[in-house]
Amino acid sequence: MRPEAPQPRHPGHPDPLSPGETVVLTDRKQRRYLISLTEGGQFSYHGGTVAHDDLLGQPEGTRVRASKGARLLALRPTAADWTLKAPRGAQVVYPKDQAMIVNLADIAPGCEVVEAGAGSGALTTALLRAVRPGGRVISFERREDFADVARRNVAARLGDVGDAWELVVDDAGDHLAERACDRVVLDLLEPWELVGAAATALRAGGVLCAYTPTVTQVTRLREALVAAGGWARAETVETLQRGWHVDGLAVRPDHRMVAHTAFLNVARRVPDADDAAGAADPPDATHGGEHAGGEPGEPAPPAEGD
Ligand SMILES: C[S@@+](CC[C@H](N)C(=O)[O-])C[C@H]1O[C@@H](n2cnc3c(N)ncnc32)[C@H](O)[C@@H]1O
Fold first, then answer.
1. Nearest in space to 212 (alpha carbons), one of 233, 189, 194
2. 140 near 168, Cβ under 8 Å?
3. 124-143 burial, b for 16+ CB within 10 Å, e for fewer?
4. Does the pLDDT of residue 293 top 60, yes or no?
5. Whose CA is nearest to atom 2 of ligand 1?
6. What is the CB neighbour count within 10 angstroms for residue 4?
7. Nearest protein CA to atom 7 of ligand 1, as residue
8. Which of 140, 136, 222, 233 is nearest to 188 (CA)?
9. Mean pLDDT across the stretch 54-79?
């Protein structure tokens, strides 16, 4: 049974803050705290305490004073706030990668997506936001404790999503092949072990997207796609997110950035490997398989003398 959750209000909702809602408090140093508002409740942190009653009934964007004097800004959380601040069991997929996965795998309203593993439910939430209305996400998670975290996070973030989400607490390898779908999204240690099941599940033209933190995982996955056949347009990309410090004349890149998180590997399911122009073929030995320019997925321009 899904946990009871009020239907969350999106940032910018016209109603004042009310009990049961989650807000993100931001301090002067941009530190963020996710809290669930209750009548008579208190939020405690190193700056003292904040009475929830000081926020209830107030408009979004209200500033409150903590007991030691600091001021905190209260807003309804964005998807990125939720991802970074919600409770987690397993490591989550960061907002920069969630956005790219939705885009690269072309996850849109009406899509049927199978995901493994669900972990803390961060990526699940992004997938659910993308497939509705009309689509579904089936998530596999083999650990009951992580599945609980995912359930709670999805309910807190999206409320009751009805039939749009099914969470199966089991090994994806045992069931994935039975689930006909348009997209398969993998975030687990050994995605190459699920290539065969994903090929069976995916309809022709469907997309496989695997999130792999290490180079060795990329290599094994890409080799498995080539060996299996039936895949085309395989590509591997990564996204680096660099924030900027903007303060008067001091405008420069931040000293720290969200650099490496993982590689995103995408491939299209095709009926017959032999028909797949530019399929998941081994890299071109002449060019080392590198793109010499253009967009990811575009063939490299011919080298001089070709
Ligand atoms: C890194 S976490 C996923 C995090 C998730 N994408 C998120 O954003 O919150 C990987 C998860 O895959 C699960 N897992 C690993 N192998 C699995 C399998 N064969 N079937 C189902 N779940 C699996 C693990 O238990 C773990 O929770």
1. 189
2. yes
3. bbbbbbbbbeebbbbbbbbe
4. no
5. 119
6. 9
7. 92
8. 140
9. 97
Structure tokens at 264: 């995103």
Q: Which residues, in sequence order, are CB contacts of 189 under 8 Å at separation 6+?
A: 217
In CATH, the number for domain 82-275 is 3.40.50.150
Mutate to test the pocket of ligand 1, among 82, 127, 152, 187 (most ligand atoms within 8 A of CB): 187
Task: Read off the tokens for 191.
Answer: 């995605």
C-alpha to C-alpha distance for 238 and 257, rounded to whole angstroms: 14
The CATH class for the domain spanning 22-77 reads alpha beta
Reduced to 3 DSSP states, what percent helix, strand and coil does the chain have, rounded to the nearest 5?
Answer: 25, 25, 45
Q: In the numeric block, which tokens belong to residue 122?
A: 């961060």
Average confidence (pLDDT) over 69-75: 97
Range of weakest confidence among 71-85, 245-259, 266-280: 266-280
187 touches 213 (CB < 8 A): no
Question: What residues does each domain of the chain span?
Answer: 22-77, 82-275
What is residue 66's predicted lDDT score, i.e. its pLDDT? 97
Q: How far is the CA of 281 from the centre of ligand 1 (A)?
A: 28
pLDDT in tens, 127-166: 999 999 999 999 999 999 999 999 999 999 999 999 999 9
According to the model, what pLDDT value does residue 304 have?
41
Q: How many residues are given for the chain?
A: 306
Tokens of 38: 């209750």
Calculate how far, in angstroms, residue 289's C-alpha sits from the geometric centre of ligand 1.
Answer: 30
- Check residues 282 and 112 and name the one with the higher pLDDT: 112
